[in-house]
Amino acid sequence: MLTTPNPLEGTVIDARPTTADRVRQVGVTLAEVACVFGTLVGTGVIGRRVAESSGGSLSSAATHIAPAGPAFSIWSMIYLGLFAYTVWQWLPGQAAAPRHRAVGRLVAASMLLNAGWLLVTQVDWIAFSVLVIVAMLAVLVAAVARLLRHPASGNVDAVITDGTLGAYLGWVCVATCANVAAALAAYRVRPGAPVADALAVVVVAVAALVGVALTRWVGAMSTAARWSIGLAVAWGLAWIAVGRTSGDPRSIPTAVAAGLGTLAVLTATATAGRRTARGRADADTDAHA
């Protein structure tokens, strides 16, 4: 088998890409182009900004679960990471890498779903947008699961691939909760303050628990994925807390719950890797006893 060193990592990788590899690379690239177009639509360069669609139901002041406006700047980092991944998978030695074969099509699917979400919100199909973002979330979970079975070839690969998909997954977890709340608001499901506060606290708690569960799931298998997931979820929760204390609708219970959720996710992120590594060390000790 013909192999060659990866020029950036020094890892020996099968150097003979197949036709399927080339098709996958082209598919990822076309999906990136679609994602860029969707971004231009969603940011108002073409069409309306997302916050202006669906009667303002997706704005930062629409529901108790909506993060404050600056939270959405995380998309810039995610989009930059997706662009970097698109370029990375074309570099010599990467085309036939097992992890790109495992996740490339899922990355492409996530970008197409991302573009699709931005387009359906433009036409005020907010109920359908919930289905799209749930599908995106499922695709990203599957992508990260496959990454964990195919370790990164080095630090550059870990940052570009694991870091990007981890942040993408973590943020979409929070965004899914916000999207569901926005859809309910669009259909005039607006309970009074005490009920709205209680429901928001429950949803925030669930989002935090999901963030904790994801970081424990990834554990020490991918430090880049674990931290990017944890930080993205914590980022979203922290900006929910900011939104509920600095703008309408104000909700101290929601803000407190979001603040506590942020701390819980960050703590879990910091300890999950050590816990997993310790468990493996104990298992190795028992096996050799």
UniProtKB/TrEMBL annotation:
InterPro entries: TspO/MBR-related_sf. Keywords: Membrane, Transmembrane, Transmembrane helix. The chain crosses the membrane at residues 72-91, 103-120, 126-148, 168-187, 199-217, 224-242, 254-272. PANTHER family: SI:CH211-161H7.5-RELATED, XK-RELATED PROTEIN. This is Tryptophan-rich sensory protein. It comes from Mobilicoccus pelagius NBRC 104925.
